[in-house]
From TrEMBL:
Key word Hydrolase present: no
Organism of this sequence: Maylandia zebra (zebra mbuna)
Cellular component, GO annotation: beta-catenin-TCF complex; chromatin
Listed SUPFAM superfamilies: HMG-box
Major localisation: nucleus
PROSITE patterns: HMG_BOX_2
Gene3D superfamilies from the UniProt entry: High mobility group box domain
Alphabetically ordered keywords of this record: Activator, DNA-binding, Nucleus, Transcription, Transcription regulation, Wnt signaling pathway
Gene symbol of the encoding locus: lef1
Subcellular location: Nucleus
UniProt similarity note: Belongs to the TCF/LEF family.
Protein name, as recorded: Lef1
One BP annotation, GO: canonical Wnt signaling pathway
Binding region for DNA: 10-73
Coiled coil: none
Amino acid sequence: KEQEPKRPHIKKPLNAFMLYMKEMRANVVAECTLKESAAINQILGRRWHALSREEQAKYYELARKERQLHMQS
């Protein structure tokens, strides 16, 4: 049985919240003494929900662009 040559795995594009987390994680880590990822994620989640629709729109637009790039590759 012949195997097809493996193509490199292409990661899924990040969604709006994940892009926000990626950008803001360093700020949260610097602000608080917490080192646990789960606790930091909770803080980021609360901050994400506190953002206005306009503030979130920036990340939704970035996510849309990432999806388009992903579909092209």
